[in-house]
Amino acid sequence: MEKEFTAKTVEEAKELAAKEFGVSADEIEFDILEQPRKTLFGGLKGEARVNAVYEPAAEEPKKRVFEDEANDEAPAAGAAEKIEDVSDENGDDGV
User: Domain for residue 88, yes or no?
Assistant: First the structure.
């Protein structure tokens, strides 16, 4: 997204951009197009203009969960049971 913002100061223009985009100003790239000029007696004349560019980060792909993984709360417990079954079939006493 790209949009131009104007305000009394550059900081106010940046805040407007952050509010409109719904993100922190740190996540937006700004180009200062125009700054207000100081008058002879220290006041400001004109407005600040900034061009704000915000590119949302690409969403991370969702992890695919296989049905066995979703239902298996303790994978190691299943492995231990399998080892016991094999030991019993071979006539081992687990030693």
Answer: no
| Confidence at 72, pLDDT banded by 50, 70, 90 | low
Cα separations (Å) of 72 from 21, 35, 67, 80, 81? 42, 61, 9, 14, 13
Phi, psi angles (nearest 5°) of residue 22: 75, 30
φ and ψ of 7, to 5 deg: -160, 180
**26 is a domain residue:** yes
Residue 39 lies in a domain: yes
Name the percent of the chain in helix, strand, coil, to the closest 5: 40, 25, 40
Percentage of the chain modeled with pLDDT above 90: 47
